[in-house]
Amino acid sequence: MSNTRLRFPAEWEPQSAILIAWPHAGTDWADRLGEVEETYIALVAAITRFQRALVCVADDDVEAYARARLASARVDMDRVEFLAVDYDDTWLRDSGPITLRDGKGFRLLDFRFTGWGGKFEAGRDDRLVESLDEAKTFLNSSRQPIDFALEGGAIETDGAGTLLSTWQCLQERHPETSREDLSAKLADWLAQDRVLWLDHGYLEGDDTDAHIDTLARFAPGDAIVFQACDDPADSHYNELKAMADEIAALRTRDGRPYRLFPLPWPQPIIDGGRRLAASYANFLVIDGAVLMPAYDDAADAAAAEVLAQAFPGREIVQVPCRPLIWQNGSLHCLTMQLPEGLV
Q1: Are the C-beta atoms of 110 and 144 separated by less than 8 Å?
Q2: Is residue 343 classed as helix, strand or coil in its secondary structure?
Q3: CA torsion sign, 131 to 15 to 54 to 117?
Q4: pLDDT at residue 4 tops 80
Q5: Residue boundaries of the structural domains of the chain
Q6: In Å, what is the CA distance from 165 to each residue of 101, 143, 156?
Q7: In contact, 46 and 288? CB cutoff 8 Å
Q8: Residues β-bridged to residue 291
Q9: Which of 331, 334, 320, 287 is nearest to 16 (CA)?
């Protein structure tokens, strides 16, 4: 590793809080705000059973409203803290801080957020980490701005120096950069000593250009949990089968195959003629639990069983996420974990 003081912790390591941003009428959620608020209430209720939730709010009115809705749902408000900050939208996995441990403190990596390659206005989201840092949100940390487009949903680490990503996403953001150069840059910034790339895997309705957190995720003990498709008639079948074969060919640092946990495939969800990107791989690991996106599908229970095997000793909590995928993301995309000691 380029700097032995630096380490990118895995998501299952101890956390201090989960960072989210409350949806409001000025975000892309406006047309279906009521449904989405119900998901947010369920999400904050699930988080606060185990740890703190830091909730970004656009102004005093949004805070008062969110506070009232959460309190009326009997959420543990002692574990909820509100942060006043500007944001365009609520996908904090991609606009929030990527946190490395730096000796006894922290380094907040503040990459450029371009609205997934310029698809959406993202000026306020791009300043989010800086705004939170200036507000003294984080303890014992320094912010490192990096003039390079990278979203948190595009990378996955095992906490021990191995990074997993999809070539489609990074090539889309940086078409002039070779795989070798991209690997070297990511390894340097993120304190990794190897980068594994997947060339296959996508979801219809996904506008992130195949973020890894919708497809394949590390789990403790050299394991990978991934979204499988077992329906040969489905348009995803060939691509996700090719991805599964790629994952099976990956090797751990000491040359062994990874332990593999394929997730079941939910039935297609169509909205206005458009297929939505429903993935069980978009789960969030928190202290003592895994929060799993549920889609009101028969496969929800089977997905929970797979996650219970991959994350033994953690409670699997289903959060209703069908309203989220209307905007092409799910549970992990909304959230950013903050390592223990950062807040």
Answers
A1: yes
A2: coil
A3: positive
A4: no
A5: 6-339
A6: 21, 23, 7
A7: no
A8: 284, 317
A9: 287
Write phi, then psi, for 15 (nearest 5 degrees).
-120, 160
Q: Identify whether the C-beta of residue 59 lies closer than 8 Å to the C-beta of residue 86.
A: no
> Do the beta carbons of residue 190 and residue 154 sit within 8 Å?
no
Residue 207 pLDDT: 81
318 SS3 class: strand
Q: In the predicted model, is pLDDT for residue 1 greater than 50?
A: no
Of 257, 103, 254, 93, nearest to 191 by C-alpha is 103
SS3 239: helix
Q: Vertex 176, ends 126 and 247: CA angle to 5°?
A: 85
Q: Alpha-carbon distance 12 to 29, whole Å?
A: 29
The span from the CA of 334 to the CA of 282, in Å, is 10
Looking at CATH, the fold of the domain delimited by 6-339 is given as: L-arginine/glycine Amidinotransferase; Chain A (3.75.10)
Q: Token pair 């996420």 is at which residue?
A: 321
Specify the pLDDT at position 114.
81
Amino acid identity at 307: L
d(CA 218, CA 335): 17
What confidence score (pLDDT) does residue 124 get? 82
pLDDT exceeds cutoff 60 at 303:
yes
The owner of tokens 């506070």 is 67
Place of tokens 């599908």: 297
List C-alpha distances in Å: 284 to 73, 219, 257, 326: 22, 11, 24, 19
Q: What is the mean pLDDT of the chain?
A: 95
| β-strand pairing of 259-263 with 223-227 | parallel
What percent of the chain lies above the pLDDT cut of 70?
98
Instruction: Name residue, tokens 């889609």.
Output: 295
Alpha carbons 36 and 32: distance in angstroms, whole number = 6
Residue with tokens 């506008």: 207
* Non-local CB neighbours of 162 within 8 Å, separated by 6+ positions: 192, 193, 194, 195, 196, 218, 253
Q: For the chain, how long is the longest CA-to-CA vector?
A: 55
The one-letter amino acid at 118: G
Q: Are strands 336-339 and 15-21 parallel, antiparallel or unpaired?
A: antiparallel
| Rounded distance between C-alpha atoms, residue 78 and residue 61, angstroms | 20
